[in-house]
Amino acid sequence: MISETIVLQSAGSLAVAVLALLMAFLQAMFFFRKPQFQWFGWSAAVSFSGMLYAMGIFFEYNASPGPWNRFGGRMEYAAVIFLIHSLYGFTFAYLGINGKRYHMIAGIFHALVLISLWSGNYLLSDSFAEREFLGLSKPFVETELGPLGPVFVFYAILSTCGAIALWLRHKVRKLRYRRPYLIGVVFWVLLGTHDGLASLGWIPAFQYVMEYGFFAYSIVVIWVVFSSFVDISAEDKYRVITEFANDGILVIQGGKIVFANPASSEIIGRQIMNSSASDFLELIVDQDRTKFQEYYSRLRHSGDGPGSFTIRLERTSHEERIVEIRANIVHYRNRPAILGVMRDVTERIREEQALAESKERLARLKKMESMGLLAGGVAHDLNNILSGIVCYPELILLDLPEGSELIEPVKTMQESGLRAVAVVQDLLTVARGVAIPKKPINLNDLVREHVKTPEHRQLLDNHPSVTIECDLDERLLNIKGSRLHVLKTIMNLVTNACEAIVSEGRVVIRTSNRYIDRPMKGYDRVNIGEYAVLSVADNGPGISSDDLDRIFEPFYTKKKMGRSGTGLGLAVVWNVIQDHDAYIDVKSDAGGTEFTLYFPVTRDEIQDKSSPVSLEDLYGNGETILVIDDEKRQREISCRMLDKLRYKTKAVSSGEEAVSYLKDHTADLLLLDMIMDPGIDGHMTYEQIKKIRPEQKAVIVSGFAETEQVKETLRLGAGRFLKKPLILEDLGVAVKKELGGC
């Protein structure tokens, strides 16, 4: 071959260098226009590295052995180092792989290699070698490789193959431009491998040709960059249109997000870069992925899907957001895609759920209230009936001599009456609308009191295979409540737990302090605050979901015939909880049931219990008491009891009669029934009497409860309120205190 061939080869290297420099400038312009796309910058670095390599070859072609030839060789190998680093930078940026660790480690390594290259003879020696290339008429002179030169050649080849492997193994299924890019880089690597092996003298070579492989590779890269730049510019037009939309707008291809407006990024909670298309499926919480995949498959294959559907997305902060998506098939970048409009409906869904819970709670309360009104009316009538059964045995026992054979039968009558009164009290508790007097109490004290009661001992006798354990927090805070009502609640829950166990089992009563720092949803929604918690758990068969919705209804019971239960036990629990501004939670499964009660705590101390009063301390001094009651039997009972307490009594049957009587007569105290029919009630009666006698004292009684009407009467000046049936000691204390005797 003629010698002019050398001139042509060196001219070819120079041409490649000039073209590479122009491409580097062009790609740098793309990068400055779109700096968020880092792979534009790395592609410019690749072109610049190619320019350095071609210039090194140019020097070697045209310089004889000496400094300039050695300079060209070192420039060639330096360019290879830059090229490897830039190749990985481009690959990581385009594929969306985090390359910080690689750039840190490889950057240090490549810097050390460059220092060794320019300051020592490890990679290139001081001697020169002549290569007999088939395509050149005279030998090609270049710097001889140093002791580490072959290692570096293999490092360059393997590093480039590693970059190819990243492109092949990347999880993106339909990455644009991957095939042409791989063809270009493989062609370049093959030519580079040829040159590397030729520099080692291992194969005969036509001449060094890697710069032409690089030229082909650079053309592919700039085509990828230019095409992507055009696509991104086109997307910017859409982005301008969608930038200020409140709804998120997404384009999904192959399951990847290839376009997203700012609202989408705000909803998703992360910046979506079109260059590293995010897998939309990875943003969806695990439980909703199948739902989205079914919708996506149906929409992609048939173009038909529901108008909208909701899924939950997980943000980078692990916060879940509920989004509503409407989607349609479109063509994007000449390929089918799904255009989705996404709206954050988290707050709306939560408000709807809260509203549904409120409606459910309101319906439950209304149902309980209506049943309570029925129970309250029944309780009032029963109290009047029970007055004779409870009060007369007490009066009879006072008159019977010691050792009388009638004492035990009369006591049995009295105890039966008191048990009936307890049922009526349950009805009154269910009735609610009652102002329960509340004092500081401690749940631990009430649990200990309960396990010592005859009712508890009877429960153990009835269920010998059931063990009852107490796990009480000794640091339990006090609550404000009614001792009797909370004690009844504990008894009902323990009884219910024992009767739920079919054979052997155990019931555990626990107390603890608990601070709720955010609303907690259970059977009830427990609000933020400090609570003394009481729980009663059993290992019975559990409560079915159907029964769980009805267990607190009055008269609802699943107990078999022959077992105790009026259907009021849990209804009483529910109403006591409501009256104490407390909350209840129920958890039940095949392994058992646990009732957990949350009582607001108080820092008030428990007051000392009052000592019992003897009957002699309650005797009066002959004061006159006017008994006002529409029930004849109740008038008789009240008068008998007051006579026993050494008071003078006068009885009238209505409010009107009482007002008329007091116009001409006086009474030291009124014993006034609140509910009288027909005619005016107790409140109106006392109101009219106060107009006649402003200083008139009164004790009011009722078979119902301490209602708002009762409280209004107390505010008028009445001293005490007693519930029917009357107990002699309670009546004596109230009358004595109102008359100023104690």
Radius of gyration: 47 Å
Distance between the termini: 137 Å
Average of per-residue pLDDT values: 78
* Residues in helices, as a percent range: 40-55%
Task: Provide the CATH superfamily of the largest domain.
Answer: Rhodopsin 7-helix transmembrane proteins
- Model regions low in confidence, pLDDT < 50 over at least 5 residues: 1-8, 560-564
Number of helices: 22
- Silhouette: rod-shaped
Total domain count: 4
CATH topology descriptor of the largest domain:
Rhopdopsin 7-helix transmembrane proteins
- Sheet-strand content, in percent, reads 15-25%
Oligomeric status:
single chain
Task: Give the CATH class of the largest domain.
Answer: Mainly Alpha
Largest sheet report: 7 strands, mixed
Shape-level CATH architecture of the largest domain: Up-down Bundle
What do you see in this structure?
The protein is an alpha+beta fold. It folds into 4 domains: 4-234, Rhopdopsin 7-helix transmembrane proteins; 244-344, Beta-Lactamase, CATH 3.30.450; 435-602, Histidine kinase-like ATPase, C-terminal domain (Heat Shock Protein 90, 2-Layer Sandwich), CATH 3.30.565.10; 619-738, Rossmann fold, CATH 3.40.50. Helices cover 53% and strands 18% of the residues. Strands 9, 10, 11, 12, 15, 16 and 17 form a 7-stranded mixed beta sheet that branches. A 6-stranded antiparallel beta sheet has the order 5-4-3-8-7-6. A 5-stranded parallel beta sheet has the order 19-18-20-21-22, with helices on both faces. The protein is rod-shaped and about 150 Å long. The N and C termini lie far apart (137 Å).
